[in-house]
Design goal:
Elements lengths: L25 H7 L10 E3 L5 E3 L6 H19 L12 H19 L19 H12 L15 H13 L10 H7 L3 H18 L7 E6 L4 E6 L2 E11 L8 E10 L3 E3 L1 H14 L2 H5 L2 E4 L23 E4 L10 E4 L8 E2 L13 E3 L3 E3 L2 H9 L7 H10 L3 E14 L3 E3 L5 E3 L29
Parallel strand pairs: 3-14, 5-12, 11-13
Antiparallel strand pairs: 1-2, 3-4, 4-5, 5-13, 6-10, 6-14, 7-9, 8-9, 10-11, 15-16
Helix pairs in contact: 1-2, 3-7, 10-11
Length: 455
């Protein structure tokens, strides 16, 4: 049984938990466009968004694997349609936002959509008014493209519409409505309209940056970097940005040089809040992660046996991490001097790029395709081909390479945008800069490396 109201427009028909219906698996069903039913012993999502077999309960690892298989199959088929294929800041993007605003004004004028109450999960094979309301909502937003006579049934067409909605909102594709998808659905049409209007004004103000022949743009709420050349996307990459308590600032700067195998000079704020408490808790962390303590920048390191970790004087010292593949900056740091002392860099924590929400850093931006970005930045410099970038990394030596000509970089904050094919995207207001209340209202699940000490 589902948790939810016992009566009213969202009342659900009581059905046996284990439906004995012969059918296809979820992934196969989606690829064939038929109803996602289950065979005895096959798998589907339960009312809490878990996966179960009607023979045995699946382990957490098995559930995650099946969810990932479903997500991968769906995104392989429909993902390209939802890629942002134009610069975030462009006249085409502004025109698309204007069209989206006109459409959402009509939705608001017609009364918008209703909220889904409580902790209700809506999934394939469900029936009832709540399914009809979900159909109506996704038809309004353009995610449900094929209407069905079975208006009270959660069939394969509705499952695909939910997947489309999840792609547009930066959610993990599951094909059913769990807590995070329900939270996004429950943002009112009026709030979405205000979000679009707020971001249109931002884009219009930012349009001047698109006059540069080459520039790098990081859109923080979408966790995405674009390298733009002559108005087109030369490279696009996932990024990790600052957690809400240590937000990545809005920045305009110039990329001047690349540091291969850099030292990490730990900012005092990170040393005081994170590093010193960690070393006091686990003294082996200091040597295991190749840190040094200096009296001041430029001085020789203090011998480890002379360091008194319990002394308040430790807060007067400077901390540095030696170069290497385990360095918090990875193998490349992209230097862009600015008053906030933030920059872009590699990271040894590659697993974080697999997450949909990637607000994990202390303010700097970690770039998944950092070597490709390095090659793009250096492609105007004689002899610096992408191959030479890879050679520099293979050699493992510290080296600073100045760009032939500095490249502008902009960290911007755009929580909604329109793509070249007219699809509208929304993201949570992770730093509460929209003032719309459309925020990341839920803590992210524990991920290995999430709390690692890093810029």
């Amino acid at each position: 049984m589902h948790d939810g109201p016992k009566s009213g427009p969202y009342m659900k028909t009581a059905l046996p938990r284990h439906r004995n219906i012969i059918c296809l698996s979820l992934v196969t069903a989606l690829s064939l466009g038929v109803s996602a039913l289950i065979l005895p012993g096959q798998v589907q999502a339960d009312p809490d968004g878990r996966w179960f077999s009607n023979k045995r309960e699946l382990t957490l690892q098995e559930r995650r694997k099946r969810r990932q298989q479903f997500s991968d199959a769906f995104e392989a088929r429909l993902g390209p349609e939802y890629q942002t294929n134009i610069p975030y800041v462009s006249q085409q993007a502004i025109d698309g936002m204007g069209q989206a605003i006109a459409r959402y004004r009509k939705i608001v004028a017609a009364g918008g959509w209703r909220k889904f109450p409580g902790s209700m999960t809506i999934q394939p094979n469900d029936h009832g008014n709540h399914v009809a309301e979900l159909r109506r909502h996704l038809a309004l937003t353009g995610d449900l493209r094929v209407q069905s006579r079975r208006v009270r049934a959660f069939d394969s067409g509705l499952q695909e519409a939910v997947g489309r909605f999840q792609l547009r909102h930066g959610l993990r594709v599951t094909g059913f409505v769990g807590s995070r998808t329900r939270r996004a659905l429950n943002v009112s049409a009026r709030e979405r309209l205000r979000q679009l209007e707020t971001n249109l004004a931002r884009l219009q103000d930012l349009l001047k940056i698109n006059k540069s022949e080459r520039y790098v743009l990081v859109n923080v709420p979408s966790y995405t970097l674009q390298a733009i050349e002559r108005g087109t996307i030369g490279l696009q990459s996932k990024v990790v940005v600052g957690k809400p308590s240590r937000a990545t600032p809005s920045v305009t700067a110039q990329i001047r040089e690349l540091n291969f195998f850099p030292y990490w000079r730990v900012p005092d704020s990170i040393a005081h809040k994170d590093l010193i408490p960690q070393i006091r808790k686990d003294p082996s962390y200091f040597t295991k992660e190749n840190f040094s303590v200096l009296p001041t920048w430029g001085a020789k390191p203090i011998p480890q046996e002379n360091i008194n970790w319990s002394s308040p004087d430790i807060y007067k010292r400077k901390f540095r991490q030696d170069p290497g593949h385990n360095n918090a900056l990875g193998v490349v740091r992209i230097n862009m001097p600015n008053k906030h002392i933030v920059y872009m860099h590699d990271t040894p924590l590659k697993q974080l790029f697999n997450q949909n929400s990637r607000a994990f850093s202390s303010g700097c931006v970690r770039v998944q395709r950092v070597l490709d970005l390095a090659g793009w930045l250096l492609n105007k410099k004689k002899d610096w081909t992408p191959m030479r970038v890879n050679v520099a990394v293979a050699l493992g030596k510290s080296e600073t390479v100045k760009l032939k000509k500095s490249v502008p970089v902009h960290f911007v904050y755009v929580t909604s945008w329109s793509t070249g094919n007219g699809i509208v995207h929304f993201r949570p207001d992770i730093y509460d800069r929209d003032g719309s209340g459309v925020q990341m209202a839920e803590a992210q699940e524990a991920i290995p490396g999430q709390g690692a000490i890093s810029p």
